[in-house]
Amino acid sequence: MLSNNIYQETKIPTQRERAWQNFKNNSLAMFGLWCLALLSVITLLASWLTPYDAFSQVGELLMPPSWDTTGKVEYFFGTDDLGRDMLSRLLLGSRLTFGYAVLVAICSATIGILIGVLAGMTRGLKSSFLNHVLDTVLSIPSLLLAIIVVAYMGPGEINILLAIWLALIPRFIRAVYTAVHNEVEKDYIMAARLDGANNFYLLYNSILPNILTVLTNEFTRAISIAILDIAALGFLGLGAQAPMPEWGAMLGDSIELIYLAPWTVTLPGLAITFSVLVVNLVGEGLRQAINAGID
Predict the structure, then answer these.
(1) How many C-beta atoms lie closer than 10 Å to residue 163's C-beta?
(2) pTM for this model (two decimals)
(3) What is the pLDDT of residue 294?
């Protein structure tokens, strides 16, 4: 009787619970998750967190950060060559670089996953044609494709978002198409079809849970690529235009000051590096946790 009660009270964890437990046990992944949460809060509340107007001169020109002997506590990260507060510009710039990157990745994932799933569940001429088109598009680096689109449409925030969106969609389509196509060919799918399961049931209950690792990898990779592409286009002068405090544009505008005022170059560069690093840490942690939960 006692053994039966123990058996009844023992709860077998679900795949999602096992994955979350594995993720929590990964200290690097949890560190990345907390940093990513902090970065997200900063991005959402940037307008209320900036101590000064990010577009106006509030201090002396090229004032060093507060930890320098000639710096001031009022301007923690110092000022740029126009006397604008660096901290305020970095906080507001998180929206233009990190925030837009997440937005573009979500939009690209939505379209790319939908097309990839439809193509992976079908066969014949349509899938073959899509495969050849993707091979052609993916042979062009995403940044180069974005530069081509921006060069045609002109610089600006909306244009670079559209350019990066168009460059990321083929990556999602190819990854999802390949994963779904490989999964459909497996024996358990064939057996489920013989039992009368329709495509929607197979997709929701069998295929998507088994390709969750692929989706997670592609989404986090897309955010990293979008951050770097937005910053690169801003650095080249094709992205957000002055006086917008986009991190890549800040880096490009201050590159000639690297010896005179190195903080004006180092701080935006560190912001870009930090955002890409935490996204990759979370993505790798999710991949390992999902794989361990499936095993």
Answers:
(1) 27
(2) 0.89
(3) 60
Q: Is the dihedral of CA 113, 115, 116, 118 positive or negative?
A: positive
Predicted local confidence at residue 9, as pLDDT: 53
Residue 140's pLDDT is: 77
Rounded mean pLDDT, 219-235: 93
- At position 293, the amino acid (one-letter code) is G
Distance separating alpha carbons of residues 91 and 38, to the nearest angstrom: 12
**239 burial class (0-12, 13-18, 19+ CB within 10 angstroms)?**
buried
Q: Are the CB atoms for 34 and 55 separated by under 8 Å?
A: no
